[in-house]
Amino acid sequence: MRVIAGTARSIPLKAPQGMTTRPTTDKIKETLFNMIQFDVQGAVFLDLFAGSGAMGIEALSRGAEYAVFVDSGKVAADCIRANLEKCRFMDRSRIVRADAASFAAYLPLPERKEGEKLIIFMDPPYEKGLEIPVLEGLAERGILDGNCLVILEEGLGFDTETLAQTGLEISRIKQYKNQQHIFLRRV
After folding, report:
1. What was the pLDDT predicted at 59?
2. How far, in Å, CA of 186 to CA of 181, rounded?
3. 8 A C-beta contact, residue 51 and residue 76
4. 8 A C-beta contact, residue 121 and residue 56
5. Which CATH code is given to the segment(s) 26-186?
6. What is the pLDDT of residue 21?
7. Could you report the per-residue pLDDT of 79-100, keeping only the tens digit for each?
8. Are strands 93-97 and 66-71 parallel, antiparallel or unpaired?
9. With helix as H, strand as E and coil as C, how does 10-54 read?
10. d(CA 84, CA 136)
11. Which residues, 6+ apart, have CB-to-CB distance to 185 below 8 Å?
């Protein structure tokens, strides 16, 4: 696993040990960032269920202004910190050790300038229903506005109908061999 493009290009990244995370492959990461390349520049990037932090680090490398990494595990938080230090992005990031739903509902959210884009990347454990409480918490706090793009990584069997209750609409779905990215925007 490595940074694909940008200022930290080719820097290898560590992944947390064990079976609690499943890092997005470099090929899928590259495809995703090619799809959102014009949204990333100058955006705030929120990496929920961050694991290694590879997605937020890729965003910072490609010109995101700031990134917040949220993961409940100590091993993951330590891994994210090591990867950020290696890429020299600590000054443009914050690590929050909390579960994503609590963060979305209660903890301080990243400050944004007027009109600044927010990209929220969520890669929860598949088929656990964890995305709905997170999206509801963010919606209740008014963060899901017209300048916000939510990208949800889920397994191919994920029922997208469950997302109707969030007030977001699916703008695009990109399917891969074993997973998919679901792009959500405000209705």
Report:
1. 97
2. 17
3. yes
4. yes
5. 3.40.50.150
6. 64
7. 999 999 999 999 999 999 999 9
8. parallel
9. CCECCCCCCCCCCCCCHHHHHHHHHHCHHHHCCCEEEEECCCCCH
10. 29
11. 146, 148, 149, 150, 168, 169, 171
Is residue 23 within 8 A of residue 53, CB to CB? The reply is no
Q: Encode burial over 62-71: b for 16+ CB neighbours within 10 A, e otherwise.
A: bebbbbbbbb
pTM: 0.93
Domain boundaries defined on the chain: 26-186
Closest CA to 120 of 46, 58, 186, 176: 46
Low-confidence ranges of the chain (pLDDT < 70): 18-21
Altogether, the residues listed in the chain come to a count of 187
Name the DSSP class of 91.
G
Tokens of 35: 């799809």
Strands 179-186, 118-122: pairing is: unpaired
- Report the b/e string of 165-175 with b at 16+ CB within 10 A: ebebeeeeeee
* Residue 134 near residue 106, CB atoms below 8 Å: no
Of the candidates 43, 63, 187, 6, the residue with the CA atom closest to the CA atom of residue 121: 43
